[in-house]
């Protein structure tokens, strides 16, 4: 079983009181070759116009930028990982979801959602 830890990150939303990011699950455990989904609730008045960025950090390593999503039709994955890693936005619930497909041991990490303001 693989453990994916999740934390919320944001560059300046909290500092200026502009909004809040919330990941409701603290961890997700899935078997190898399955998929995992991580959700991030974004309390921001301009959610529909805001890009949600996703990162991960493996133990004792630097942050790795994964993908950002502005609309469900505009995903920008890093390094052509679009089959492995996908991101979406649900405009009704102000939620962004990261989906990691074909899980492998190397996917064990702490995953972060972020908004740049």
TrEMBL record:
This is T cell receptor gamma, variable 3. It comes from the Eukaryota. One of its GO terms (biological process) is adaptive immune response. Keywords: Adaptive immunity, Immunity, Immunoglobulin domain, Receptor, Signal, T cell receptor. Gene3D superfamilies: Immunoglobulins. InterPro entries: Ig-like_dom, Ig-like_dom_sf, Ig-like_fold, Ig_V-set, TRG_var/const_region. GO terms for cellular component: T cell receptor complex. SMART domains: IGv. The gene is Trgv3. Residues 34-117 form the Ig-like domain. Transmembrane segments: none annotated. PROSITE patterns: IG_LIKE. Residues 1-19 form the signal peptide. It comes from Mus musculus.
């Amino acid at each position: 079983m693989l453990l994916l830890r999740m934390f919320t990150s944001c560059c300046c939303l909290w500092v200026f009181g502009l909004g809040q990011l919330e990941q409701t699950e603290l961890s997700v455990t899935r078997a190898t070759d399955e998929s995992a989904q991580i959700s991030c609730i974004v309390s921001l008045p301009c959610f529909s116009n805001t890009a949600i960025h996703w990162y991960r950090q493996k133990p004792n390593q630097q942050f790795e930028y994964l993908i950002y999503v502005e609309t469900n039709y505009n995903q920008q994955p890093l390094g052509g990982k679009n089959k492995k890693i996908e991101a979406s936005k649900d405009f009704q619930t102000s939620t962004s979801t990261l989906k990691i497909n074909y899980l492998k041991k190397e996917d064990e990490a702490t995953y972060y959602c972020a908004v740049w303001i």
